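User: Here's a protein and a ligand (adenosine-5'-diphosphate). What would the complex look like?
Assistant: Let me lay out the input and then the predicted complex.
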Amino acid sequence: MTTGPTTPASRPLLGCIADDFTGATDLANNLVRAGMRVVQCIGIPRQEIDNADAVVIALKSRTIPAAEAVAQSVAALDWLRSAGCGQFYFKVCSTFDSTDQGNIGPVAEALLARLGASFCCVTPAFPENGRTVFKGHLFVGDVLLSDSGMRDHPLTPMRDPNLVRVMQAQSRGGVALIPHEVVRRGSEAIAVRMRELEAAGARFGVVDAIADADLLAMGRALRGAPLVVAGSGVAIGLPQNHGIAPSAQASALPAPRGARAVLSGSCSQATNQQVREFIQAGLPAFAIDPLRIAAGDDVVAQALAWADARLGDRPLLVYSSAAAEDVKAVQQQLGVEAAGSMVEGVLAAIGRGLVERGAGQLVVAGGETSGAVVQALGVEQMRIGPQIDPGVPWCHAWSPVCGDAIHIALKSGNFGAPDFFIKAFALLAA
Ligand code: ADP
């Protein structure tokens, strides 16, 4: 049983429901950059949230059966409404990952129905990250969605770049386009078109956006709209409606404490480079060999014994990151899933051990790895702080493992500059 906050003071304005964890962080990060104080929750919160302008609830509903996604999203909406939010944001993937069965259409329609509303705008556009929508067609960098790598995604292959058609295939209500010739005329023109479409019985308006100015105009047009369905881009245009402007206070976190550590389970090129830079800087690093885990070695105990002697002034790194050919060799021996979950489990247990030993500043590399570590630390919600590199903020989270709050940065594989592991701690110390 969950209960919503009852204190009228500092109630959040914007309630967000994200269909996956890293998408939630991406959205939260954009809201913070636009001046909002944001708390991100893993699943529906069990306690009140204070001093936040926006609350982002991260679900894992992108590819689960549509009925389950609807049930979870509506429950999240109910919690956010009880917390006092007056506007809602359903955050979907910037490549609009979905199928004819959903889950974007069914969830959006269920949220509209729950809110007693009949129309909302839809756009995954985020020009800064190479996602633009023109004449309803989604571009990923310079190519149409259907010519991008998403064409062959194992769960949600995206073979039609026309979002009006894609959305229509998974919705009961009508889908129309708010084209760029309207968007470029500004917020009033967009708002007028929204009202016209709603009056004509449309349920969704796919909005073209090819530049930040389009998103800012769209944001102003959304003042008073109950719901928006979008990638993280639209977030830059919403805080202005509440008189909120970018500020350093939005991302302010308490001073860091405790030892610094990096856990890296991502094997992406960017992360492998970050591991190399950390080692080349002469900082202590411990490599995890998945074959030793499979052979029964107590790798967790070995890593923690190594760390015991080193946790202190300098950051340390524990990593399983490896070159593609080494990963393939391990996967051939152990199986892809078995290798993955084995390594995730070990890194999560090491993360827990490090926090028990006083680590208070933790960087985790890898999307799945981050999920495993956050779970092992018992983290349920995080206040979003300053951005280290695009899409990756420092967060502040209470962990029952140490009975205190820690600083944690969760980096998905390909994000971050080569010196990410070093600059992250420098940013926090500044
Ligand atoms: P990314 O964000 O780069 O995709 P993830 O953490 O999501 O990173 O995924 C990396 C996966 O690879 C995890 O399941 C992790 O446990 C696994 N893994 C990490 N190191 C190795 C390795 N050396 N060999 C095989 N699998 C590995």
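Summary: The chain has two domains: 14-247, 253-429.
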